[in-house]
Design a protein that fits this description.
This protein has 326 residues and is α/β, with parallel strands linked by helices. It contains eleven helices and eleven strands. 42% of the residues lie in helices and 17% in strands. The structure holds 6-O-phosphono-beta-D-fructofuranose (F6P). 6-O-phosphono-beta-D-fructofuranose (F6P) binds next to loops.
Amino acid sequence: MKKKVSKIGVLCSGGDSPGMNACIRAVVRTSLYYGLEVYGITRGYSGMVDDDITKMESRSVANIIQRGGTILKTARCKEFFSYEGREKAYKNLKKRGIDGLVVIGGDGSFRGAQTFSNEFDIPCIGLPGTIDKDIAGTDFTIGFDTAVNTAVEAIDKIRDTADAHDRLFIIEVMGRDAGYIALHSGIATGAENILIPERKTDVEDIIRSLEEKEKRKKLVNLIVVAEGDQFGGEELTKLIKERMPLLETRLCILGHIQRGGSPTCFDRLITSRMGYSAVECLIEGRHNVFVGIVNNRMHYTPLNEAVKKKQRIGEEWIRIVKILAT
Ligand code: F6P
């Protein structure tokens, strides 16, 4: 029989993602609905180690569902990598009687939660907060939809200039280890080529296809590159400029604009469902899992499995890119 949870701590960890606030709101309001106390932990695991923890009420999360960033702030905490750091964090939770934890973050944050829950008697629930969508066990992650829509809006604007000047634009989007933002935004904007870290980049093939498109006077050429691709935007631009000096080539790095901004309706909905479900998991004794959504249903993956797997990009996506870009 799993221990009953009565006081919940909630934190955001790793890179921020749009929808984290909507998620915090759902965790706080669901906890209060069930008569539990809920505590906001500032700056991720750092707030646990440094004892930066505040009791939250319903009003604490008023007027945040539409805001990007996170009212709890977020951080990557070095001290939490050591046992001493985690023990310090545990004592800070324990003295307030916090006996359940909701961690909103990416796979690195889940790793921290898994280690912590193995060492101490505090069950943890992970919620997938990352724009990268690289966590296996969920169809969507918190902030991915917003980030992709931000990228699409920007690339559509760049297309106007590409068209007006007959230029090639290389657009670098986020994704240090994952190509989902590049893939989705690239397909949605009709990019000629999409380069992602999960696949080897064949520069010769790109040059060949650009030369062929130049011959048949194709009007707009956009290449979307994930920052973690083996070349990345800058190197690819340099290579193409060297090989095709007559082609007017420009690079645009979208950067952190993809991480901020008001979450889309879709992100607000999934985060509300996930936050609610995390509290239900703690109450029902479904501990040390992360909550995802698969085929529009809540899906629970044990944290120790979640940290071993990455979401893969299927071959069919690549076929779609090739067929539609001709
Ligand atoms: O949130 C994930 C991510 O956006 C990656 O795609 C990117 O490489 C990284 O964060 C950037 O992190 P930072 O803000 O620490 O530079």
